């Protein structure tokens, strides 16, 4: 499907890509990962010719893309970025159908395609089709960005850290949705991330890069079993450090990417923070960083008029666990309480992370693979 042959790229005196060669099969979900500056985003952008290589060739279905008009090429490749890039003056429907309209699709076909795609992510057309981006949560905006990339039915979709700015719960849900869409629609996806948990969850094949070279190209299970270098081993961290699940603690696999505010902050300030961070929920603490509760966009909408300190309206119903709690016990609490997440605290009851069901299952799976190695 996609073939890189001897690709090199330099910016000034810095060589970013160094004689890169690999192949991507049709319908495969490839994740590019590695330390900052390793060349993963440059590699991605060369597929739709946003960056041109200095040497080598890239073929798509046997055709050298350097011989293809860039506009024609890009209309056949979906592209999703972290900043989303929805046009604020266009409705959800208009944003999704930008490329189909450029391809001269009839209006009725565009509407039907929009309805079909919105249904796939549980955003009914009648409710969301005529809304503008500012009326959507960060997660909903990113869903629309993904659907826009799929609208013209491209065989290839490029995704450059699309979920990096989202809160952990929204990010986790979107990962599940994108993976399900990819499998259902049989799309070839090239996905860039710096998050190994995300790579392990999403990929059919992980390409680990460093200094413009491929250090290892393998399935998630193989990379967990046999990391090819110390750099990869360091990226894996505690995921491969334990021999069995009894040794796993909450701290080993919690997500530290949480947005917090203090209870004395004004509600409107918190709403603005959520908008800036592009999240739909925020953890509220007291001045000692001790958990007070959680507030969501939905909670604020139900309240109507937004005024007063956030601590006055926070939802205090949450389960706190200590960082040293065993994996098995944390998992049992998630199941028994039917919660979506657990808040992780340290010895001083300071919030240090969050755990959800997907991260828990991934941690236990990692431990299982370690046992079988």
Report on this model:
The structure is a single chain. By secondary structure, this protein is an alpha/beta fold. It contains 16 helices and 16 strands. The chain has helices spanning 40-47, 70-74, 92-96, 98-102, 107-120, 125-128, 138-150, 168-185, 196-202, 220-225, 230-236, 250-253, 267-277, 297-303, 327-337, 357-372; strands at 2-11, 14-24, 29-33, 55-60, 63-64, 77-81, 156-160, 188-192, 205-210, 213-218, 260-262, 281-285, 291-296, 320-322, 341-345, 351-356. β11 (260-262), α13 and β12 (281-285) form a beta-alpha-beta unit. The longest helix is centred in the middle third of the chain and has 18 residues, at 168-185. The chain starts with a strand and ends with a helix.
């Amino acid at each position: 499907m996609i073939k890189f042959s001897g690709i090199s790229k330099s910016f000034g005196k810095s060589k970013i890509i160094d004689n890169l060669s690999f192949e991507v099969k049709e319908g495969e979900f490839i994740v590019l990962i590695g330390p900052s500056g390793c060349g993963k985003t440059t590699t991605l952008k060369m597929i739709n010719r946003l960056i041109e290589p200095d040497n080598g060739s890239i073929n798509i279905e046997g055709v050298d893309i350097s011989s293809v008009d860039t506009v024609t090429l890009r209309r056949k490749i979906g592209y999703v970025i972290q900043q989303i890039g929805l046009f604020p003056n266009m409705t959800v429907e208009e944003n999704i159908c930008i490329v189909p309209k450029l391809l001269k699709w009839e209006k009725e076909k565009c509407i039907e395609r929009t309805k079909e795609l919105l249904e796939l992510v549980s955003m009914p057309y009648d409710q969301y089709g005529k809304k503008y981006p500012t009326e959507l949560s960060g997660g909903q905006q990113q869903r629309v960005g993904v659907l826009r990339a799929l609208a013209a039915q491209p065989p290839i979709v490029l995704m450059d850290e699309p979920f990096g700015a989202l809160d952990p719960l929204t990010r986790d849900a979107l990962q599940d949705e994108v993976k399900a869409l990819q499998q259902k629609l049989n799309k070839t996806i090239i996905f860039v991330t710096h998050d190994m948990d995300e790579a392990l969850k999403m990929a059919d094949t992980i390409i680990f890069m460093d200094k413009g070279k491929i250090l290892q190209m393998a399935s998630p299970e193989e990379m967990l079993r046999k990391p090819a270098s110390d750099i990869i081993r360091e990226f894996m961290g505690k995921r491969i450090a334990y021999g069995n699940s009894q040794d796993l603690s909450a701290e080993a696999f919690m997500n530290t990417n949480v947005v917090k505010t203090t209870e004395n902050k004004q509600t409107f300030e918190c709403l603005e923070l959520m908008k800036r961070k592009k999240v739909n929920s925020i953890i509220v603490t007291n001045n000692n960083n001790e958990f007070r509760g959680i507030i969501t966009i939905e909670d604020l909408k139900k309240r109507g008029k937004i005024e007063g300190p956030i601590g006055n309206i926070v939802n205090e119903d949450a389960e706190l666990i200590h960082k040293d709690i065993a994996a098995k016990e944390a998992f049992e609490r998630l199941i028994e309480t039917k919660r979506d997440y657990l808040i992780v605290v340290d010895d001083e009851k300071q919030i240090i992370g969050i755990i959800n069901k997907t991260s828990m299952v991934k941690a236990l799976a990692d431990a299982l693979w370690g046992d079988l190695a």
